[in-house]
Amino acid sequence: MILSVVETSSGSSPVILAFPHTGTAVPPDILVRLNAEGRLLRDTDWHVERLYDGLLSEASVVRATFHRYVIDANRDPSGESLYPGQNTTGLVPLTDFDGQPIWREGAEPDAAEIARRMETFHAPYHAALAAEIERVKERHGVAILYDCHSIRSTIPFLFEGRLPDFNIGTMNGTTCAPAVEAAVAGFCTAAADYATVVNGRFKGGWTTRHYGRPERGVHAIQMELAQASHLAEEVPPFALDTAKAERLRAVLGAILARLADLAPSLKEVRP
Asked: Under the phi-then-psi rule, with left for phi > 0, alpha for psi from -120 to 50, and beta for the rest, what region is 236?
């Protein structure tokens, strides 16, 4: 039994950190229906909340506690694909990122169950996130939503080759002011020994696209970290490499501090 679907911490900063995929809780009635592959929870954003912990103490935090195999909090509630024509996973995934089935045969969730999970998990997470965005915007006149993600660096089912370390998504510059994208990209490209791409394979998920309305004072940006940047290995048990993590945290901390400093100026550029 999941006691809390979403964890929220309200801060005094204009920056909000969202974590839709770090949760590993799976209710027992759902867990028994996952097959051996599904129970590995392979597609978790492993340790991402630890990477950002304490980097901007005043930031608000909204974190889903449930696993994305229960329902994916970063997918369109309609079920519409974020990347038409490309391999991806759905609102309630039937496969993992390698295209391998995650449910026992015959135990896949039907439309009625998906609707129940939407009401129980997906909707409360986004209600909490939307409320926090409105609270922050009311206080500061602007809100910066920084959506925190990670993914394995090599997944042939989803993309060719090896993913860069920093994958910045703003849906081709539409979900935030240019200054927000430039600030994040600037720190990433300046960081030694890291590779960066803006609006490459990952242009921002449903969270970024849904909430990012710079003309209304809400600026959203997604950071997808390649897990090779902070894991010892991208295989079970998905252990954190503390040395890698500390190097990465220095860059991430600089990004968040700059966004907090940048926020007041964003009120001046709104139409």
From this structure: beta
